Amino acid sequence: MSYSWHDPERLLAGAQPSENSLFAADVRRRRTQSVTITRRDPFDELMDPEHLITVFRWQKAIGGLGAGSDGVRYEDVSIAEAGTTFRQLSRAIHHRTYRPQPARQVEIPKPDGGTRVLSIRSIFDRAIARAVVEFLTPAAEAILLDGCHGCRPARGVWTLLADLVHAVNAGFTTVGQADVRRAFDTVPVDRAIAAFAAVTPDDKFCWLVETLLRGAEGANRRVGLDQGCPMSPMALNLLLNDALDRPLNEAAAGSNIRWFRYVDNYYVTATCTTQSQYALGHIRTLLQTTNMSTKPNSEHVTNLRRNGTRAPVLGFELHGTPPRVQLHRAAFTALAEALDPAHTGPNPAATGEAVVRGWLTAAGPGLGETEREAVLERVRREVRESGLRESLQHAQVADAAEKAYASWRRVLEERVPRETNPQGHAPLY
Prior knowledge:
- The chain is an alpha+beta fold and 429 residues long.
- Helices cover 49% and strands 11% of the residues.
- It has a four-stranded antiparallel beta sheet with strand order 4-5-3-6, sandwiched between helices. Strands 7-8-9 form a three-stranded antiparallel beta sheet. A two-stranded antiparallel ribbon has the order 1-2.
- A hairpin with a 2-residue loop joins β7 and β8 (316-319).
- α11 crosses α12.
- The longest helix is centred in the middle third of the chain and has 21 residues, at 232-252.
- The protein starts with 7 loop residues before the first helix and ends in a 15-residue tail after the last helix.
- The model is unreliable at 1-19, 33-37 and 420-429 (pLDDT under 50).
């Protein structure tokens, strides 16, 4: 499903929260509790302290990132104390004196070596940003193209994989890939703010979006987004949608090239290596207009028609034609790393079993009937080596693997292209 850039009615409709969103549900709840029902300005509803407390409760329930630079954790604050803080912040936002606190810098190890810096905002600033993202998501969904899979509702690595599988089955058997170098750190903030113009309904929202993106530095921040801010993924999606996705879509129209993106990872499929290389070169050129670039040595083209070739895709591999999805070795490394901390909890066996179940759920596409037993044996070996043998029950794990693969099959069926172009291939995104 793709949406037209020139569809004002859809854009206007998208500027309202979806009926199932956290924002809409909370507004309905508070209106039904009121004797007099009056429709308030959406911005006032969004920044109402009671709604911010609802978002805060939700974030506290799911856990996630720790304290910001102020050192305040969710468990340090009662709901009454949070309410006092949000009333103060709400007033500051309406008077346009609000500015997020400085972020806490945390180094996170990367799977391929090295580290990346996570900039963690305060728990209160994150709630405000999350409320704005929740409200703007329908409008963003109305303009993001179908080839974009990262940080979107009902999309993810599985939908990306499904689209790649269908593309290869349609004859686009060379897979090219490129990663944007330090994407969040190199985002031009002014362009990211400008990209929000299509989804922000009025000046108040524009001001708050800019304030959240610039953070504690204010106008001095010209480059880079805090990865610990809930608004940053949407900002990157909207920027790349304008600067790369749409121009790439136009350039690929009528050709034997298709493109896909997961956050800052680009994939292109084509009928020959030359076309894939051309598409990757076009991505490099488009990135230069934003002063961004691809990672050194991140560009690869794989011809799946050649025996033994594999195209890595975010913890999975595509192999052969028709393509089989297999697990990449990095997925097993991730499992081993996740099992290690299980020994530190009060119930290592239960924690280990939960880790294995969660890993299998995510591994669904790589659990086909021809690969499943070998994968489960590798899982059992990882568990044995971690010293958590009693946490693994073969029948339960096999059942979890079968259910995960069945879920993947449903995603694969849902993503079947509904139309073909005049050449008989699946449509470009």
